[in-house]
Amino acid sequence: MKIAVIGGGSWGTALARLLAKKGEAVSLWAYEESVVNAITVQHENRPYLPGVPLPKNLTASCEMQKVLEGARVVLFAVPSQHARHIVNQMAPFIKKEIPIVSATKGIEIKTLMFISEVISEAFNREGAGKIAVLSGPSFAQEVAQDHPTAVTLASENHHLALRLQHLFGTPTFKLLITADKIGVELGGALKNVIAIAAGISDGLGFGCNTKAILVARGLSEITSLGIAMGANIKTFYGLSGLGDLFLTCSGALSRNRKVGELLGQGASLESVLGKMQRVAEGVETTKSAVALSKEYKVPMPIVQEVYHVLFEGKPPRQAVADLMAQAYGKEISLEIKGMRQ
């Protein structure tokens, strides 16, 4: 079975390798010719996943039609703010019955749509039964090194979810399924914003006490917004919620945590992003998170302070002080109908 992977970054390549090692015929689309050449000639994606040998049955091309032709499943792993443009390029070459798995963690700024919704709209699909979302605590480098990893696969189509669970699953890569796409996509996107805050804390030289505040209260903010948007609260205490938040806030491989750390050390956002080859989704997602907070009238003080630091030049130490000034009164309790607080 041919599988098309759209996106030649570290995450797309790691998942393409995983599928190819299982014996699937995997074709990867990448924007950069350097990536395609490296995979084709050296069987290694040196720009984004250096040091990881790739199976020879993993091919690559810059031609969208060539990659998608004959594909039975499409995996989408493109940075969120480029998603609509790339999906529109894909649309002429994919039949409506072909399932698409979104592995992109972000929210489109202009529309505040999740990437699965962007895909559904672009393909003019009446339902979302052929679209699934893959998210959870998973550094690409560690997946490519076959470290034990578990993620969440969300789909409203249970039969599709079971099929994809089998397709992607390996002895070291497991998928737990759910129907809660809203919760999975929101958790995967907003944990990057909280990770920037955690990185700022690291850059300022604060310790575990401070990071514990950010993780716990950050999870409360994400959960509160998720409930307002119709997500299942249980999702946020699973792999794609708490699991991914913990990984991204604490892991040395986290790009979003690194952005925050450099900001905490005094670097400007422009200089930080200028030195990064790979996208830190949390920077742009912060704008979407603030907009959603206002739209759903959910207070999100950590998200708001990250926005002030990123886009309004607020000193990171002052942002931390202002957050601490707000930490008084009762612990957060979520008002959920039918559930005791």
Give an overview in words:
The chain is an alpha/beta fold and 341 residues long. The chain folds into 2 domains: 2-179, Rossmann fold; 182-326, N-(1-d-carboxylethyl)-l-norvaline Dehydrogenase, domain 2 (Orthogonal Bundle), CATH 1.10.1040. Helix content is 49%, strand content 11%. It has 15 helices and 8 strands. Strands 3-2-1-4-5-6-7-8 form an 8-stranded mixed β-sheet, with helices on both faces. Helix 5 (115-122) links the parallel strand 5 and strand 6. Helix 4 (83-90) runs parallel beside helix 5 (115-122) and helix 8 crosses helix 13. The chain is globular and about 60 Å long. The protein starts with a strand and ends in a 15-residue tail after the last helix. The model is unreliable at 337-341 (pLDDT under 50).
Annotated CATH architecture of the largest domain: 3-Layer(aba) Sandwich
Reported by name, the CATH topology of the largest domain is Rossmann fold
Computed over alpha carbons, the radius of gyration is 20 Å
Write down the overall geometry. globular
Quick one: how many beta strands? Answer: 8
Spatial strand sequence of the major β-sheet: 3-2-1-4-5-6-7-8
Q: What is the overall pLDDT average?
A: 93
| CATH superfamily membership of the largest domain | NAD(P)-binding Rossmann-like Domain
CATH class of the largest domain: Alpha Beta
**Helical segment count:** 15
Determine the structural class based on helices, strands and strand pairing: alpha/beta
Let me know the largest β-sheet: 8 strands, mixed
Helix content: 40-55%
**From N to C, what is the helix and strand string?**
EHEHEHEHEHEHEHEHHHHHHHH
Q: What portion of residues belong to β-strands?
A: 5-15%
